[in-house]
Each structure stands twice: as structure tokens, then as C-alpha cells.
């Protein structure tokens, strides 16, 4: 097909010298979404996209199949408060998952339906937390994908909103005191009290009394601390112990404090240091047996659980209960104590596959394992706050929509507690576990999903993320299943920078080591080609957010290796990324241009700065979201303009710029449209025919 001309985009002769290095930025004008020139350019890009995507075959087929597979709906594990439970469920016809409660008499009712709050589908339920008695509910909603959560309170029995909105509560934990009369939460300072451009930072921990004005909230913690800090807060079930954690941005480490609220007032807690200025992450759990359990990667990059007395919470008093495993990564735990021999359930991932072991609660000795439905992903182990012999956990794999499983420690049996509500016909697929060597010899694992019996080279999508310690685990995906059912292969590489092998694996792909992540992806592509799964002319790569940075670097470093790219919500201008969205919270992962050595890391791979005129680049589709307040769409706008200018072949470079959508949650219908466009584009440029 013949590509229409690209929209004109002026190239400014803008060069800045940073640490003695000239850095050009010809499309900086695209950083201003309100500039008429930017608006005109975006309008022209939308027309080009419509013409190009509209001319491709197969979109209706992908859209129909994705829609059908998403009719599975979803289900979440229950949160218990006495005999009342709370859980999320999405039925086949619903655009968003709904929060339900089951009353003590067994009556189930919808408590929060985003579509009832806003029939346009643009409102999302971001977080929720019932009080310790299950009588009140704190919940947070945002509109249009901006994730600017406002906090409200609801009377659970009547479903009435009793407080709110409280604004500036993005990413705020809520920690209730017993009785439901007050809670701790995190809120940003007003924009009038912070420097220009720093509205997204400067968080503080407050104590709020239900029924009182927020003007009366008591500042508890955070004054004078690092502006990019995120805070966690928790209160033990009996209300005695308060914990507060602080992390600088997304750093894989935290400081931690503890206060005894029986010895100091909740409004002025006497906080003692548990961990400070230590390069490790730790969290506290107050056991019903009076012990303090510490979940930490301190001296244990794959994780361990220690115990101590809450009155002596410091490191020197920790005693190993569950030591680090040499292969598996500790991910979760729960305590079941209504037994003759109380136990602790430990969730692990081994090469990103979940398992649960059973341990004696006192000695930590392994005494068994929890049966799981298959080789998949466990989404958290839930116990009753007051204790018991039962636990619930979410489970999914490549062909299983989300389910909730119930484990009975008295019988040792796992049973299906709740399935996703929609009945769908899931295609038969096979999953092969591969290992390969990266450029420096490191062994990397990869899952390759295909149609059973298919042999020979076929169109393949290679997906990766490689950052922030996030693991690529198996899960139900309508997009993946639709692609594989059509005859393609889908490969998921467990790159360095992720958490599949613990914190050392993460750090092997961050800061000065970021190039390892890109090398791991290139090596995955070469392995897929060498083993006959695909060819370079049939291979696509896909990634979003940090994964968008990954594929952006890949297409500039090895353009000959890939036929097509989908680059979604990406970071691409790594010289100026700290100036926009939440970028300043990520310099602990990537580095900062303020420091010469870290600038050198960033400049060495920044995709926008490595686009070269006259190169034959892969067919590339950028998908971005105008309301994205995490990663500003300007990254893709600038990179798109640069690639369109530089492209020497007739393979298209297109921009899908979606309004009233953001980085995270969205309505199902929006998900379907986006996925259909992405798969249609990749299918055409890798030769997949449905």
C-alpha cells in the first residue's frame, strides 16, 4: 500500500550543551499541547492514522475476537471484615469492575459501580479500603484517565456517601483506627504552597477525623523531607501499632518508623526508627500472637521473613523465620492460626511461576505446600483479620481468566471459590519455556506461546518490560490469545530490570546497567530467529511505559532486527524526562541529567536522540493518551516527528493519540479498540493473515 505524506513538522535548530556535550532537540515545540502548531500537527496525525489503519485488513476479526474473549469478565479475592466481605467483579456486559459487598446475612449487593457514578465510562475506581469493622469505606476515584484521585467515605450498610471529595489523594494509602472514627492518609500539599511545576510531589501523612473538615487534619509526618517521597502507612488490627514508610520516588529501598499508640496519642505518635538510610526494602506485619513479622530484602535480595518483638523492632533484633531461597523469590505471606499447629503460607515465584509453601509458624519449618490449579500467577494471599484456617488467593494463567481459590489448612485442600462470571471458549495454546544467553553471557528466561502443532517461522510479537522490579508473569490476555489463535507466536522475555530473579536482577537493569535490558531484548529476538520460531521480517516488538522506552531503544539500536513496533505511553526523551509527569520520581531508576556520569548513561541510549536520518526503521505505531499524567505523550510526539523525518523506507510511522484516557485503568470498550488497532498494525507488517 502507498503511504500518504507525513504531516509537516518544523525542525528547529535547537542545541543545548550539557556537561560539555551538544544535545539537539529539533521538536521541542511539540512539548506544548496548547500550542496551535502542536494541535494542528496532532489533528493531521489523527487523519493519517485513520486512513492507514482503516485500509488494513483484519481489524474487524481481531476486534470481534478480543471482545468475545473479554466477555470472561473478572473476579477479585475477598477482603474480610468480620462476617462481611468486599470484592471486585466484572460481568461480561460491564465496562468496569464493580465493588460488591456481601452482608453478614449473605445478601450480595453492588457497593460502587463506576458506570453508575459516571455513565460515560470515564470514571475509574482507583482504590478502596473498608474500616476495621466493615462499617465505613474509604474509596478513591478519578476521571478521564488522569489518576488524580479524590477520596470519599461511604456508609456501607446504606450505601450513602458521607464525606468527600478530598482532593490531592493520588496513590494515598488509608489506615483506619479501630472504631472507624479516624484514619491516616497521604495527601499532596496545595499547589499554592509548592514551587511551580511541583504540584505532583510534596506529600504528607495526615490524621483525619471522620465528620471533620480537612482543615482540621493533623499533620503527622513528611514535613521538610524529600519532595518526591511516597509514604506508606498502616495500623495494626488492635490499633496499638502505627507504621510509616518513606521511599524516595520509586527507589527499591525505604525508611521505616514505628509508634506505640498505647503510649502516645494518634495525633502525635512517638515514632522510633526501624530502618533508615539502608539500601533495602522492608515492611511490617503485626501478628495476632504478639510478634512482629518483617518482610525484607535486607541481606536477602530474593526476600526473607524475620520475627522480633514490636518493642524492639530494629535490625539487630531480627531473627530469620523464613530464610532466603536460592532460586525462588518471596512474594507474599499469610498466617493461619486457628489450628493445633499454626502455619504461615508463603507465596513464591520461581522464574515467574507462582507456588505456595506451608511452614510452621513458630519455627519456620516447611511442612507442606498449597495445591494450585497450574503453572500460573497467584495474585495475593488473603486471610481473615481475626485469624482462621482459611486463605483465599487469585489465580490466572495464559488460558484461565481470573479465579479465586480457597485453601483449607485443616484439610490441605484447595478448591475453586469463585470464577470469572463469563463463559468463553478459550483457544488451545501451548507454552514453551526457553532460555538464552544475552550479550554478556547472562541466562535469560522467555515464555513462547503458540498454537499447538504449528511449526516453522511465523509472525511473532516479542514483549518485554525490564524495569522497576516488575515481573512478567503468566496471565489471561485476550490480545495474546487472539494473536496466537490467528497463527502467530507471542514471546514474553523476563529481562533484567524486572523482579523475576529478585532485587539483584532488578538492579542489573537499572541506572548504569540499563543497556543490559536492551541487550537482553536483542538477544531474545536473535534466539527466536536462530531457533526457527520467526524471522526478522516477521518479528514485531511491543512494550508500554518503561517497556515503551525498551522498544524505543531497540528500534534505534537494531532497526534491522525488527519488522514492526508498537510503542505505548513511552519514555523516549531521556534528557528531559524528569521535567514532565512523574518523571522526577524515576531518577532513582534511570539517573538524572544533573550529574555528569548519569547524564552520560541517559544520553547513550535516549531513543529520541539516536534517530538517524536515512535509516530504514521498522513500521512503528506510537499509542499515547492525552490525559496521561505519569508519562506525558510529548515523548511519543517528538519521537514520531523525528522518525517520520528520518525514515528512509516506505514502512509507516504512525501516531495514535487518544483523548480522555490515561496511563492506567480504562473502560473495556476503550481497551478493545486500542488492542484491535495494535494487532491489526502488527499483523499487516509481519505477514499474519487471519
Automatic annotation (TrEMBL):
* Residue ranges of every copy of the Peptidase S9 prolyl oligopeptidase catalytic domain listed in the record: 477-687
Q: What is its EC number?
A: 3.4.21.26
User: What EC class is this?
Assistant: hydrolase
Specify the signal sequence span. Answer: none
Pfam families the UniProt entry points to: Peptidase_S9 (PF00326), Peptidase_S9_N (PF02897)
Q: Which Gene3D superfamilies match?
A: alpha/beta hydrolase, Prolyl oligopeptidase, N-terminal domain
Q: Which InterPro entries match?
A: AB_hydrolase_fold, Pept_S9_AS, Pept_S9A_N, Peptidase_S9_cat, Peptidase_S9A, Prolyl_oligopep/macrocyclase
Q: Can you state which reaction this protein catalyses?
A: Hydrolysis of Pro-|-Xaa >> Ala-|-Xaa in oligopeptides
Give the Gene Ontology MF terms in alphabetical order. serine-type endopeptidase activity
**Domain Peptidase S9A N-terminal positions:** 7-418
Query: Among its keywords, does the record have Membrane?
Result: no
The UniProt entry's coiled-coil ranges are none
Keyword field:
Hydrolase, Protease, Serine protease
Q: Which family does it belong to?
A: Belongs to the peptidase S9A family.
* Name the record gives this protein: prolyl oligopeptidase
Species this protein is from? Streptosporangium lutulentum
Amino acid at each position: 500500500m502507498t503511504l500518504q505524506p507525513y504531516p509537516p513538522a518544523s525542525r528547529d535548530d535547537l542545541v543545548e550543551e550539557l556537561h560539555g556535550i551538544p544535545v539537539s532537540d529539533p521538536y521541542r515545540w511539540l512539548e506544548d499541547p496548547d500550542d496551535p502548531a502542536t494541535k494542528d500537527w496532532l489533528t493531521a496525525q489523527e487523519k493519517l492514522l485513520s486512513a492507514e489503519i482503516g485500509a488494513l485488513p483484519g481489524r474487524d476479526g481481531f476486534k470481534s475476537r478480543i471482545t468475545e474473549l473479554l466477555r470472561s469478565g473478572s473476579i477479585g479475592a475477598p477482603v474480610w471484615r468480620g462476617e462481611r466481605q468486599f470484592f471486585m467483579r466484572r460481568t461480561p456486559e460491564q465496562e468496569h469492575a464493580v465493588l460488591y459487598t456481601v452482608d453478614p446475612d449473605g445478601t450480595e449487593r453492588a457497593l460502587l459501580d463506576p458506570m453508575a457514578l459516571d455513565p460515560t465510562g470515564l470514571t475509574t475506581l482507583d482504590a478502596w479500603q473498608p474500616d476495621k469493622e466493615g462499617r465505613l469505606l474509604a474509596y478513591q476515584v478519578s476521571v478521564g484517565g488522569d489518576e488524580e484521585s479524590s477520596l470519599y467515605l461511604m456508609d456501607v450498610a446504606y450505601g450513602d456517601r458521607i464525606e468527600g471529595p478530598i482532593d490531592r489523594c493520588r496513590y494515598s494509602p488509608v489506615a483506619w483506627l479501630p472504631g472507624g472514627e479516624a484514619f491516616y492518609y497521604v495527601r499532596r500539599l496545595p499547589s499554592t504552597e509548592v514551587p511551580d511545576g511541583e504540584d505532583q510531589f510534596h506529600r504528607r501523612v495526615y490524621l483525619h477525623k471522620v465528620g471533620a473538615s480537612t482543615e482540621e487534619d493533623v499533620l503527622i509526618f513528611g514535613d521538610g523531607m524529600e519532595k518526591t517521597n511516597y509514604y506508606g502507612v498502616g495500623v495494626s488490627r488492635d490499633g496499638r501499632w502505627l507504621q510509616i514508610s518513606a521511599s524516595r520516588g520509586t527507589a527499591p529501598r525505604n525508611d521505616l518508623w514505628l509508634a506505640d499508640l498505647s503510649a502516645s496519642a494518634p495525633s502525635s505518635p512517638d515514632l522510633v526508627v526501624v530502618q533508615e538510610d539502608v539500601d533495602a526494602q522492608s515492611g511490617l506485619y503485626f501478628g495476632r500472637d504478639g510478634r512482629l513479622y518483617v518482610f525484607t530484602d535486607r541481606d536477602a535480595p530474593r526476600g526473607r521473613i524475620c520475627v522480633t518483638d514490636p518493642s524492639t523492632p530494629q535490625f539487630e533484633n531480627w531473627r530469620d523465620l523464613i530464610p532466603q531461597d536460592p532460586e525462588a523469590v518471596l512474594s507474599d505471606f499469610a498466617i493461619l492460626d486457628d489450628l493445633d499447629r499454626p502455619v504461615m503460607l508463603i507465596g513464591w515465584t520461581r522464574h515467574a511461576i507462582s507456588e505456595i509453601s506451608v511452614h510452621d509458624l513458630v519455627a519456620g519449618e516447611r511442612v507442606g505446600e498449597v495445591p494450585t490449579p497450574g503453572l500460573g500467577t497467584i495474585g495475593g494471599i488473603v486471610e481473615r483479620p481475626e485469624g482462621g484456617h482459611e486463605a483465599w488467593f487469585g489465580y490466572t494463567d495464559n488460558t484461565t481468566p481470573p479465579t479465586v481459590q480457597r485453601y483449607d489448612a485443616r484439610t490441605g485442600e484447595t478448591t475453586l471459590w469463585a470464577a470469572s462470571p463469563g463463559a468463553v471458549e478459550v483457544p488451545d495454546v501451548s507454552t514453551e519455556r526457553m532460555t538464552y544467553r544475552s550479550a554478556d553471557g547472562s541466562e535469560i528466561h522467555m515464555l513462547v506461546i503458540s498454537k499447538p502443532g504449528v511449526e516453522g517461522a511465523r509472525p511473532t510479537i516479542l514483549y518485554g518490560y525490564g524495569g522497576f522490579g516488575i515481573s512478567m508473569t503468566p496471565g489471561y490476555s485476550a490480545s495474546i490469545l487472539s494473536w496466537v489463535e490467528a497463527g502467530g507466536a507471542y514471546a514474553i522475555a523476563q529481562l533484567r530490570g524486572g523482579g523475576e530473579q529478585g532485587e539483584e536482577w532488578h538492579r542489573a537493569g537499572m541506572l548504569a546497567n540499563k543497556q543490559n535490558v536492551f541487550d537482553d531484548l536483542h538477544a531474545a529476538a536473535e534466539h527466536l530467529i536462530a531457533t526457527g520460531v520467526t524471522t526478522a521480517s516477521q518479528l514485531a516488538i511491543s512494550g508500554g511505559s518503561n517497556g515503551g522506552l525498551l522498544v524505543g531503544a531497540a528500534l534505534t539500536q537494531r532497526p534491522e532486527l525488527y519488522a514492526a513496533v508498537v510503542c505505548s505511553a513511552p519514555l523516549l526523551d531521556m534528557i528531559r524526562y524528569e521535567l514532565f509527569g512523574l518523571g522526577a520520581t524515576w531518577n532513582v531508576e534511570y539517573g538524572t541529567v544533573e550529574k555528569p556520569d548519569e547524564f552520560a548513561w541517559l544520553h547513550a541510549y535516549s531513543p529520541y536522540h539516536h534517530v538517524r536520518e536515512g535509516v530504514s526503521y521498522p513500521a512503528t505505531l506510537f499509542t499515547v493518551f492525552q490525559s496521561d499524567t505519569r508519562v506525558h505523550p510529548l515523548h511519543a510526539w517528538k519521537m514520531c516527528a523525528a522518525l517520520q523525518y528520518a525514515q528512509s523506507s516506505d514502512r509507516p510511522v504512525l501516531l495514535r493519540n487518544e483523548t480522555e484516557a490515561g496511563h492506567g485503568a480504562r473502560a473495556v470498550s476503550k481497551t478493545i479498540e486500542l488492542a484491535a488497532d495494535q494487532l491489526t498494525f502488527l499483523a499487516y507488517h509481519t505477514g499474519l493473515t487471519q
